[in-house]
Amino acid sequence: MSNGNTNVGIVIVSHSPDVARGAADMVRQMVGGGIPLAWTGGNPDGGLGTSVEGILQAIDAAWSEAGVAILVDLGGAETNSEMAIEMLPEPRRGRVVICDAPVVEGAVMAATEAWGGSDLQTVRRTAEELGERPE
Predict the structure, then answer these.
(1) How many Å apart are CA 62 and CA 2, to the nearest integer?
(2) Lowest CB count within 10 Å: 6, 38, 40, 56, which one?
(3) pLDDT at 118 over 90
(4) What one-character-per-residue DSSP string does 47-63 give?
């Protein structure tokens, strides 16, 4: 199902629902509503963790024909995101990427780039450049 949006979508995956929600709130306040945005966090029992099903739902909610960039907080979130991508239908699988970037800063930078109309690889590269900057 397409939302008709031409900007890259952003998904935030955190082990904490509060962190995921807070990062999404920051993106909305800084970038506005011009991009598809979704978040997921916590395990199905309400504790810390992530779920493949939750990630799939977030990808669907933020889906854009331009693709979706996922920002994750810890290794388990990345592993579950990779599993979710593998479960996507073939046409969508190649249009979802995981950004190797800090979740909050990366989400804001990726969303800003997406809002400007950049393609998926540019959105990913912009988010990932955060990790390459010297202290």
Answers:
(1) 9
(2) 6
(3) yes
(4) SS---HHHHHHHHHHT-
When pLDDT is averaged across residues 115-133 and rounded to a whole number, the result is: 90
Q: Tokens in use for 6?
A: 């031409």
Q: Which residues contact 25 (CB under 8 A, 6 or more apart)?
A: none
Where are the domains positioned within the chain?
9-127
Cα(3)–Cα(43) distance, integer angstroms = 27
Q: For the domain 9-127, what is the CATH superfamily, name and number?
A: Phosphotransferase system, mannose-type IIA component (3.40.50.510)
Q: Answer whether 67's CB lies under 8 Å from 5's CB.
A: no
Please name which of 25, 19, 9 lies closest in space to residue 58, comparing C-alpha atoms.
Answer: 9
Could you report the per-residue pLDDT of 19-50, keeping only the tens digit for each? Answer: 999 999 999 999 998 999 999 999 988 899 99
In terms of Cβ atoms closer than 10 Å to its own Cβ (0-12, 13-18, 19+), residue 16 is middle
User: What pLDDT score does 3 carry?
Assistant: 42
Pair 94, 68: CB distance under 8 Å: no
pTM exceeding 0.90: yes
Distance, in Å, from the CA atom of 61 to the CA atom of 37, rounded to the nearest integer, reads 7
